[in-house]
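[audit] Reproducing an earlier prediction to check determinism. Same input, same settings, fresh worker. If the tokens differ from the archived copy the diff job will pick it up downstream; this log only records the rerun itself.
[audit] input (583 residues):
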Amino acid sequence: MMRSLFSGVSGLKTHQTRMDVIGNNIANVNTTAYKSSSMVFSELISQTTQKASGPNATTGTGGTNAKQIGLGVKGGAINTNISTQGAAQSTGNPFDIMISGSSFFVVNNGSENFFTRDGSFYVDGAGNLCMTSNGYNVMGWQVDEETMTIKQDTVSALRIMSAANMTYPPEATTKAYVSGIIDKNNTDVTSQAGKAINLNFYDALGYSYTAKLVIKQSAVDNEYSIELSKILDANGEELDIEGVTFGAATSQKVNSTVTLDATAYKWANNELQTIAGATVCNLADLFAATATMENPQLNTEDEDAMAALDELAKAYGYEGSTEDFLNLTVELTNNPDSGTTFVSGTYTVQQLLHNQAKGLQPCFTTPAEAIMEEYANFGLEKFDTTGRNFEGATLVYDAANGPFLGVNGVSTVTDVTLGLSALGGNFSDISIDFATSSMYDNSGTCTVAATAGDTKGLGMGRKLGDMSGVSIQQNGMIYASYDNGMTKLLGQIAVAEFANVSGLEKAGDNLYSATLNSGEFDGIGVDITANGGKMSTGQLEMSNVDLSAEFTEMITTQRGFQANSRIITVSDTLLEELTNLKR
């Protein structure tokens, strides 16, 4: 009689425990990454009143089974349904991460590692990636500073927003390319000023500059000069580019006639005057005392003389292009019968002006005896040019089909070096490639332009970059993006995997601890993608509690509890009848 009472009591206790498990599941129906639990029953113990016996061949009787009376029920096991994936909840927070698969995040409280599926993270004041609920550090692998790749070693706290990661260092531009179409009918290309293109570049400190390059058409249809005009800083101030090289000293064939603006200027011997007779410049003031025809040095120390020289160039239509004017070349041929001897050859305007100032030959003034075979268009008022000298290179294109053939006509050379190292240690030389440029009829429009970096984007240089965002890839790699267009690998979130995930022990705060039955964590972890898992940002894993199943379990548990209570009630009634026998 008493056995049924104790069986009923065990049933009540066990069903109460089951109800506790169900109640906890329902309470955590909205807990991030919560894994539901379930309880199974097992019989408590049985009292054997008669052992089982085997068949007796002698007497011919059969065997009998054991007689056992059960003494109640107990909780067999409480299992955590860890392997079932919870539904995804979109949050839009880039630091909210959901794991797909059977892996766990590794977090640390400063002394020991825990494991969690709760990917609700944030960045704390020290720049560490942490859990929002308790501030535990998210663990992962760091970046090897030499190779800039992930070093899969013992996990450590991921400090993704350290001072070093907030900016990306600048870099000097080392490569550039010129692409687009040059049209020989473009009025800029055929003008004295030429077609200007800008190359924006950076020095090693991230300061930006603009190199102005000029393209001019030659008398040969498929040849164009390219030269450096000036370099400006970010404020538009012009740099002193003395010593900066671009290409080499070369000449370009140019057939043109240079004429003095007779409406505004006139010559009086070696003095240029306005029409009203005011002196503009005297050739004798323009050259240094030591100047020779072979080295016609200008009097650069006299600012007034240099200003007068600019006005002289303007008088011939070369305003703002004094250097181009002086480098124009004239071919002269000596007439031996003239009685005046000079070496036939090609002379620059600067050389002829020098000789004019000093009364030497050849010069612009023709002596009484003709010293040139042809001089009809030669004098201070008008002269023909055959070319010009400049520092730069000649771009040669296929006259029949239009593609680029090479620099200075050499097919194996497609680039020209802008020698900026002369400006100081912060600058690097830039190799400018012209292979992607071409020469076609484009209705008189040039589309040619210069771009920093090569065609693959290498060597383009950059300014100092401020961090503009952080993204986490499916494999847990964390990248920072910067406003200078660069990205940087900051680390990788490592995950832990266990042979028996159900063997993990809940530690509160959505955390689990490793046990002997789950398997130990090796301190390194694994890449989540190694076993087909992934991380999804902007999402959190929801609880995997199935409310319909829990309510059903609650009903059966209630009925089981009710039935066990009836056992106690009926047993009590039987005991009452037994005690009434004494009456």
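[audit] rerun output stored. Observation attached for the diff report: The helical segments are 2-27, 187-190, 303-315, 322-326, 349-358, 547-580.
[audit] end
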